[in-house]
Amino acid sequence: MEKTNKKEKVIESKQDEAMNKEDEEKTLKRTNSQAKWLFIIMIGIVVIVFATAWIINESKKFDYVGFTFQKEKFGEIPIFTGQITGYNVKGLPMNFKLVLREDPRSSSIPLEGNLNVRVDSTPYIAINLSSGINDCGDSVSLVSLGQFMSNTGIGIKSAVTTKEESLEYARPLVTCDTSGSTVFILTAGNESKITQDKENPDCYVLSVSNCETQRVIEKLQISILDSINKGEI
């Protein structure tokens, strides 16, 4: 009788061990399954976050005049930037960042004529100080133009449009009558626009109304990029 009880206890003990082992295996499988799904969900979240960020970033990009631009913010100021391939002082290719305040696609500044900058001589930017353009005080736009022209490998020289100003500021006297170089005459006017001179096709008048110097300069930069893309420069 006692031997029978011992056998039964041994059998029950083995059964308990088997059940415990089975429960442990089930628990381990369940834990592994939960960990697997948690890992998959985490990966899915990471992919969604990166995909969303990529889509949002790509949606801010657009192609215009053969170059890719992107809408960004400088603090709270919206800007438009483009990575442009230009040249350094040694003439080697380099990339530079063009920053615009206005969306180049929506510029309402007209270009009357065909822009084609001569590359056999450095162009001039001649400022008509007597027109009152200097009262706008927008030297930043002129500095930006100088950097842009330098980075594109074209370069630019400053000048004035009258003999008196030439003597006073020790700058070359340049007008649309000047030949041998591309000339940009920056002057105040009744309408903001860029006009190719009829008598001298190498001369362009940058007319600025209501101190819209920046908008006119940006239109000139985009027009030059368009000419570069078309192989005209």
Structure in words:
With 233 residues, the chain is an alpha/beta fold. It folds into 2 domains: 1-59; 109-229, Rossmann fold (3-Layer(aba) Sandwich). It is built from 4 helices and 10 strands. It has helices at residues 2-59, 139-151, 163-169, 213-229; strands at 61-64, 67-74, 77-87, 93-100, 111-112, 124-127, 157-160, 183-188, 193-196, 203-208. The strands form 2 sheets. Strands 5-9-10-8-6-7 form a 6-stranded mixed beta sheet. It has a 4-stranded antiparallel beta sheet with strand order 1-2-3-4. A hairpin with a 2-residue loop joins strand 2 and strand 3. The radius of gyration is 35 Å and the shape is elongated. The N and C termini lie far apart (111 Å). The mean pLDDT is 83.
CATH architecture of the largest domain: 3-Layer(aba) Sandwich
How many runs of DSSP E, i.e. beta strands? 10
Count of helical segments? 4
Tally of discrete structural domains: 2
Q: Per the principal axes of the C-alpha atoms, what is the gross shape?
A: elongated
- How would you classify the helix and strand content by structural class? alpha/beta
CATH topology of the largest domain: Rossmann fold
Helix and strand element order: HEEEEEEHEHEEEH
Main pleated-sheet profile = 6 strands, mixed
What layout of secondary structure does this protein have?
Elements: H1 2-59, E1 61-64, E2 67-74, E3 77-87, E4 93-100, E5 111-112, E6 124-127, H2 139-151, E7 157-160, H3 163-169, E8 183-188, E9 193-196, E10 203-208, H4 213-229
Parallel strand pairs: 5-9, 6-7, 6-8, 8-10
Antiparallel strand pairs: 1-2, 2-3, 3-4, 9-10
